[in-house]
Amino acid sequence: METNYLETRLAAVASAIADKTRTSMLCALMDGRAWTATELSVMANVAPSTASSHLAKLMEQSLIACVQQGRHRYYRLYSSQIAGALEGLMGLAGLDSASLRSKTPDNLRYARTCYDHMAGEVAVAIHDSLFQLNWLEGEGYELTNHGREQLLGLGVTIDIGSSRRRRACGCLDWSERREHLGGQLGKALLYTCEQKGWVKRDLVSRELHISDTGKRRLGKVFGVVF
Predict the structure, then answer these.
(1) Which of 36-40, 71-75, 150-154, 194-198 has the lowest mean pLDDT?
(2) What is the DSSP string of 11-73?
């Protein structure tokens, strides 16, 4: 009974994703922001009435959520777990590293958001540095005492409420085919970089713009070469 239920649910979720219009909407929501149905219809190049039916399908499978703000309704990904699953599917869709890198726009491959944390070349370099600098250790991404001190010194808030989300974990980067930092720590690090003016989100895409100050500071702290 349970097996049949899981198979049915998996098939339903796969069916909801297996549509180019809905895929375009999900990819647009991967920047972590909430968008209106009209905005998503433009991104997916369909009529607003058509977009509504597609959004309803995605909501049925708990892939997205609707947030009411005054007279407006905004749509966002249902959770960080959904974002992680989509990022993984993007990696599978790339087929092989060479073809994927050649088709990925340079600006997105360089630095972008993966829902609520950083992705791309810069994020992968930061991920690797966290281990090389002994801020994180082990396959479980355990935070060392040294790492905790350094992150707090940067103003990164590590303990975020009572969230059941993992504190730190690897997230497979679909363009680099290596891990970047996810979890609560990945989210907190992006937030801190934004607050300090080191990075800034693009208004209409997942691209992250790194300021000159950000390049200097990230280079000094994590040894990232720009």
Answers:
(1) 71-75
(2) HHHHHHHSSHHHHHHHHHHTTS--EEHHHHHHHHTS-HHHHHHHHHHHHHTTSEEEEEETTEE
Query: Has this prediction a pTM greater than 0.85?
Result: no
Residue 34 in this model has a pLDDT that exceeds 60: yes
Give helix 145-154 / helix 183-195 axis angle, nearest 10°.
Answer: 30
Write phi, then psi, for 127 (nearest 5 degrees). Answer: -55, -50
What DSSP designation does 181 have? Answer: E
Closest CA to 19 of 49, 74, 48, 56: 56
pLDDT at 102: 47
The rounded distance, in Å, linking the Cα atoms of 37 and 151 is: 38
Above 70 in pLDDT, residue 162?
no
How many angstroms separate the Cα of 196 from the Cα of each of 87, 98, 221?
27, 35, 14
Separation CA 167–CA 186 (nearest Å): 8
Element (H, E) at 199: strand 199-201
Cα separation, 38 vs 26, in Å, equals 14
What three-state secondary structure class fits 91?
A: helix
pLDDT digits (tens, 9 = 90+) for 58-78: 999 999 999 887 788 899 999
Mean pLDDT score, 196-205: 91
114 near 182, Cβ under 8 Å?
A: yes
124/131 Cα distance (integer angstroms): 11
